[in-house]
Design brief:
There is one protein chain. This protein has one helix and eleven strands; from the N terminus they run αβββββββββββ. It is mainly β and 146 residues long. The protein folds into two domains: 47 residues, no CATH class; 75 residues, OB fold (Dihydrolipoamide Acetyltransferase, E2P) (Beta Barrel). A four-stranded antiparallel sheet has the order 4-11-9-6, with no helix packed on it. It is globular, with a radius of gyration of 17 Å. The N and C termini lie far apart (38 Å). The relative contact order is 0.19. Keywords: Biotin, Fatty acid biosynthesis, Fatty acid metabolism, Lipid biosynthesis, Lipid metabolism.
Length: 146
């Protein structure tokens, strides 16, 4: 499964009422769970072991996110958020910093790949909503830019 296909699949599950999704074929097995801290994806599965995915469980009621004023830069994928380029380095941005559209505001590590997260907006960092090293979900707000 290609990265773009994986991103589309994650987006589809995120936008749906499904809490867990499983897919298997002779080349890979993918399991995506919402509101969990673990995502298991792309495990090699022998062709004989591949089985059709069971029906998803009914969705749990969603928690409402608190209202935040300003533009939210959101996580482009599921992974671990890092606020700095390396351990001990200064963070990419801090509250009060001016950011430009396209400026790197953090990194999300997914499947051992470091993905730079860029600001979608020009403005001032009003709030940082996640901690360094925290697991983030696709579409989860990371920072607020005003």
């Amino acid at each position: 499964m290609k990265i773009e296909e994986m991103k589309e699949l994650i987006q589809a599950v995120s936008d749906s009422e499904v809490d867990e999704f499983k897919y298997s074929d002779e080349k890979c097995s993918v399991r995506i769970m919402k509101n969990k801290t673990q995502v298991v994806a792309a495990e090699a599965v022998p062709a004989a072991a591949a089985a059709p995915a069971p029906a998803a469980a009914p969705a749990a009621p969603e928690e409402k996110e608190p209202e935040v004023e300003g533009n939210q830069v959101k996580a482009p994928l599921v992974g671990t958020f890092y606020a700095a380029p390396s351990e001990g380095a200064d963070p990419f941005v801090s509250v009060g910093d001016t950011v430009k559209k396209g400026q790197v505001i953090g990194i999300v590590e997914a499947m051992k790949l470091m993905n730079e997260v860029e600001s979608d907006y020009d403005g001032t960092v009003a709030e940082i909503l996640v901690e360094n090293g925290e697991m983030v979900e696709y579409g989860q707000p990371l920072i607020v830019v005003k």
